[in-house]
Write a structure and sequence with these properties.
Blueprint: E1 4-6, H1 16-35, H2 54-70, E2 73-77, H3 84-93, E3 107-111, H4 117-127, E4 132-138, H5 144-161, H6 163-167, E5 170-174, H7 180-188, E6 191-194, H8 208-216, H9 221-235, H10 243-256, E7 261-266, H11 272-286, E8 294-299, H12 307-313, E9 318-325, H13 352-369, E10 374-379, H14 384-405, H15 415-426
Helix pairs in contact: 1-10, 1-14, 2-8, 3-8, 3-11, 9-14, 10-14, 11-14
This protein binds 5-phosphoarabinonic acid.
5-phosphoarabinonic acid binds near residues 79, 146, 202 and 415.
Length: about 425
């Protein structure tokens, strides 16, 4: 595995003896996870996603090929676990500016992750007269945000192509048998892809949920799988060098020492949605029974000029997890300027990535000096393989960490409450 984790900046808060004990605890939790004997063990299908079903993968690749050939835009409709993984991977591997780049693959628009009418209107207007397709994703098939968006985009698609042709441009990713979306897809003849029963939303990025939009953006599913394989080989082995065990052990140690907020700190705009995905993964998995670390995120260096003040000197509630990308795709150096009016010649010839990494080092040290312990996770690059490694590492670590915390990391009973109250306010039949 090429991902590495460095926990030395937490050693003022966790002694050698404590770390040893925490690692032993995390080994027990890993064993429970892999043996599938713990709470929520009917939602552990994601542990086998390093061996995807070839027929399903081939079908996804064929659908993506068709979308690339007949569409200038793909509207990906979904929320939560049916949205964040694909968005995180697209930004990480391609770019947050993917839609503005010159390319042979369609623009990808994400919809159905809220109720903003302005957001929907803007997406419809950006698509304009261009050819488009829809990938609607919902495991339950009943979530209101994507259902409303799907009705609107489906109407636009049917107006443009007629009902029969539109049906050939709609791909539904949902449960194999139940839910309103599955019934509708069967009735209208949409091509469907299955979200396995035993894979929860936040663990579903390496299923058709993530794979179809990513393949339509030209990302190689096999490269993602090679990253999952390499992460699983390292993260399922119970030894002290296992990075997932180490991460789970240290974050629980810090939590027990009173640090109840974890900040995911990145130095690349391409990681912004990786942080959003991570927040869902850890927030939904651990925030229950009155327990759990609150996951937050910052985009440095921009946020060093805003949130940096609080982190350096505010209430000592938090620790940080820095995520570093070792190699950039672009090499941009600071130009030499004869006049040196801005006094920057001391950086002339320096690569911006070098400067970015120095900023990261300085920030880690400054925050440590300000009594914010931190960890550093490093990935070699922004390749699909690296994304596969990073996301799988976080998933395995999340399972271990949730068991160390003593909760069921694979349910989300609290997510339902607002949905029910909203149904009452909206006047949905059967809710009062
Ligand atoms: O992780 C989860 O279970 C949730 O965030 C769901 O993914 C989210 O509520 C969307 O649900 P669904 O895919 O059923 O539409």
């Amino acid at each position: 595995m090429k991902l590495t984790i460095d926990v030395k900046n937490t050693r003022n808060h966790i002694s050698d003896a404590e770390l040893d004990a925490l690692l032993r605890e995390s080994a027990v939790s890993l064993e429970t996870l892999c043996a599938k004997t713990g709470r929520g063990n009917d939602f552990l299908g994601w542990l086998e996603l390093d061996h995807p079903d070839k027929n399903e993968t081939d079908r996804i690749k064929a659908a993506a090929k068709k979308i690339i050939s007949d569409s200038d835009a793909l509207v990906v409709i979904g929320i939560g676990g049916s949205y964040l993984g694909a968005r995180a991977a697209l930004d990480f591997i391609k770019s947050p500016n993917y839609n503005n780049m010159k390319k042979d693959t369609p623009d990808i628009y994400f919809a159905g992750n809220g109720f903003s009418s302005d957001g929907v209107a803007q997406t419809l207007s950006m698509i304009g007269d261009r050819d488009f397709s829809i990938n609607v994703i919902s495991k339950s098939g009943t979530t209101t945000e994507p259902a409303v968006a799907f009705r609107i985009f489906r109407e636009a698609l049917e107006k443009k192509y007629g009902k029969k042709e539109a049906a050939k441009r709609i791909y539904a990713t949902t449960d194999k048998a139940k839910g309103a979306l599955k019934s509708l897809a069967d009735k209208e003849g949409y091509e469907t892809f299955v979200i396995p029963d035993d894979v929860g939303g936040r663990f579903s990025v390496f299923t058709p949920v993530g794979y179809l939009p990513l393949a339509a953006a030209g990302i190689d599913i096999d490269d993602l799988v090679s990253g999952i394989k390499s992460a699983y080989a390292a993260c399922k082995t119970p030894d002290a060098e296992n990075p997932a065990m180490k991460y789970a052990a240290v974050r629980n140690g810090l939590y027990r020492a009173g640090r109840s907020v974890e900040i995911f700190a990145d130095f690349e705009p391409a990681l912004r949605f990786a942080a959003e995905w991570w927040k869902q993964l850890y927030g939904e998995s651990e925030g229950k029974e009155g327990k759990g670390i609150f996951p937050a995120s910052v985009d440095f260096t921009a946020d060093l000029h805003s949130m940096g003040q609080y982190i350096q000197q505010g209430a000592r509630l938090m620790f940080e997890t820095f995520v570093k990308v070792k190699n950039s795709e672009a090499e941009i150096t600071v130009p030499y300027d004869e006049d040196d009016g801005d006094g920057l010649n001391y950086l002339a010839g320096r690569d911006m990535t070098w400067i970015n990494h120095k900023a990261l080092e300085a920030t880690m040290q400054a925050h440590l000096n300000g009594d914010v312990p931190n960890m550093l996770i490093t990935v070699p690059d922004r390749s699909a393989r690296s994304f596969g490694e990073l996301a799988s590492f976080f998933e395995v670590a999340c399972g271990i960490s949730g068991y160390m915390l003593g909760v069921n990391p694979f349910d989300q009973p609290g997510v339902e409450d607002y949905k029910k109250l909203m149904f009452i306010l909206l006047g949905k039949p059967g809710y009062n």
